[in-house]
Amino acid sequence: MYAYDTNLIIGLINPKDRLHQASFRYYRDQKEELFLLDSVLIETRTKFLQHYLDSLSEIIAFTNIHFCLPTIEELNKLSPQFENFHRLILSEIGKNETGIGVIDFETSIPMAKASLETKLSEIIGKINWVSLSDLTVEQLELWEKLKTAVFSDSEDREIFIECIAAMLQTDLNRFVTNDETFCKQAKRAIVAYHLDRFKFMRLEPIDHEPYYSVSEATPNPLT
Asked: Which domain of life does this protein belong to (predicted)?
């Protein structure tokens, strides 16, 4: 069993994400073994919805000023951190015959958010979910020690601790991420706490064309 970090779950869901090919290929070869942690599930839903709506707002603002859709280059100058979502939304707008229907979203962002949340839940719901039982005394003692592990932020530490708890109670033995800093910090922590039987792996983006078609991948949450 293995668990994905938030960035790889989002990469799995968004076919325009830079991590989509790598995330989907790893998942496709062992899909029955993928599990979600609570903290990753919460962060995935929050981050995906927020970034999607932030990108949509940028597109709406540009369209209302210039009376035309922006190019990906123009959007990336405004907010490069949302490039994966810019590409996703522009690809969906491109399927619209008029290509300018995005303006209609301006007064219905709450409805778009609700619809996207439903579709996102449907996709995430197809992935197995780790359910943790009560911790033993020994596991609780380890849990307390892990709270002192050094990570860049509290969210990373929370994911690490939950991951170790899941690994102690289930067959989970790998946590896969694209976050180099988190991976290094997690590896240092498992050595420090003598937990080196567990693995934290970094998955790199794939630069070349995939050997599968996009239609084989996880369904687009917007369709």
From this structure: Archaea
